[in-house]
Specification:
This protein is of the alpha/beta class. The chain has a 4-stranded parallel β-sheet, with helices on one face. It is globular, with a radius of gyration of 14 Å. The N and C termini lie far apart (33 Å).
Length: 109
């Protein structure tokens, strides 16, 4: 068993700084927040340059990403594009969990 820390704990810091702080606190695993309105990593950045996003997650810190917390503000085709890009990133980063926001009540499954 391991305990992971979320980058949301350091939401006002850049991603790299948050990961370094986690390592300083002796966390070995991290949940990476990928938020449209966040300061760390945005879904649109993953779409634009997935290799750079992977590099930002993996390099500069011994903390291993184990999950993504995803918040996409786009709708329709753009939502699907960002969602698929983050899922591909999760596969490349070897993460096992992607958390998404719940749908509104009454949304068809």
């Amino acid at each position: 068993m391991f305990v992971a820390c979320s980058t949301l704990c350091f939401a006002n810091d850049p991603l790299e700084s948050a990961l370094v702080k986690m390592a300083d606190l002796e966390y070995a695993r991290a949940e990476i927040a990928i938020m449209a309105g966040g300061k760390q990593l945005k879904p649109s950045e993953v779409v634009a340059n997935p290799e750079k996003a992977l590099h930002r997650i993996r390099e500069g810190s011994p903390v291993t990403p184990v999950a993504f917390n995803l918040d996409i503000q786009a709708e329709g085709e753009q939502y699907l594009k960002e969602f698929h890009a983050v899922c591909r990133l999760a596969k490349q980063a070897l993460t096992t969990s992607v958390t998404i926001q719940a749908s509104e009540v009454g949304t068809p499954f």
